[in-house]
Structures
1.
Amino acid sequence: ERAQALIAKQYGKESAAMAAVYMLQGELYEDKGELDKALAAQLQAVRIRQAVLGERHVDTAEACQNAGNTYLALSEQGKALQMLERALKIRLATVGEKHASTALVYDNIGNVYHSKGEYD
């Protein structure tokens, strides 16, 4: 939270730097098992990255992917799938079908279907 205040003062509350802070906070909360706090931070990162960088930016895709994985950890498969499909759409448009980061999104989507017991 101290870093949040410093970054907000230096770069503004709606900056790419602030989104990066939220991403890191989300990771830390997730590592601690505080998934609700992790998701809140990740959704802030999604919102800011979309506003600052646009919907078709790889960093926006990364934020969507992290939020999608946290939704899955919270057993919210529908929301996880929505967020991961959004990340996939961005990845396909920016880095293409054969990029490793696109493959990872496909893997994450597969994890959602697996958690739902849908194997076809």
2.
Amino acid sequence: AFIGAYEASRAEAGWVDPADCPVDQPGLLRDDYLPGDLKFDPLGLKPEDDEEFAIMQTKELQHGRLGMLAAAGFLAQEAVDGQGIIEHLQGMSA
């Protein structure tokens, strides 16, 4: 319920009300809304500059993609020899 309420408030903050949108432009974003900026930064890590924020978003996407590739490697290794990552690590220490 909490996540649904938060997503609803984010949608209201980011998108123009459908009643106020032109018919040929559904899903129009507000001018002051930056996609991905959820206004939640308790540690103050978010850059103030929009360009720096876009660079940080790109870095986050690239790191996520690298993590997905690593997870795919773990799964491929397990599919080949039937041992999980823990078994491989235990075998290395013996």
3.
Amino acid sequence: VSTQSTGHYYIINNLRMSAWAEVRQLQEELYNVQLEATKNKLSERNCVAVIQRLVNLGWLEVVYSCDGKEYITPKQLEKDILDELYVCGGRVAMTDLAQTLNVDYSHIEKKVN
């Protein structure tokens, strides 16, 4: 092996090693950022507690789904009704709206009238 080819091999090998070192460093930085982001997240349970507290204080109004697992604001319900009307060509039965949007018929009736 000539010294010239050995020198190129050495340079290429060093470049590979430095590239891998950089990749490892970036992985470590990503891992640290991901850890920091989870520190600032609320759990689903905490989110539900915050929303429930706002509802109890009267600062937030929500419409509960038929199964009680979800809720939306009255404004969002209105938007969803308008979206369904658009999709259905301008006409849709209120009973179908209630079923599609998973809310009680009375909420649909209130928004439509």
4.
Amino acid sequence: NIYRQKLLPLEKEYNFHDFHSPALDDPDFDAKPMVMLVGQYSTGKTTFIRYLLETDFPGIRIGPEPTTDRFIAVMHAETDGVVPGNALVVDPKKQFRPLSKFGNAFLNRFQ
């Protein structure tokens, strides 16, 4: 692909991966686009996701007080479930590998 032929050699020559981000792998190109929702608590983020999915999702909690103290990646799968962040960053088929640099404090809140 173009990245491996044109960009990766330049990134290696100028040590780009030493100061910015690791080289991209196939999961980075094969992954579906992602959207991040950010906002104050109780503003409808979870309700919006439920509306788009037309169903509830694992780990959902809704209430008038802050209920979501985690980063949640909602993805399609054959079965419902919650995958811990530590497992997501080591899965070679997922695009979350670069998040490992944020450490266990972040990964414990990521699912």
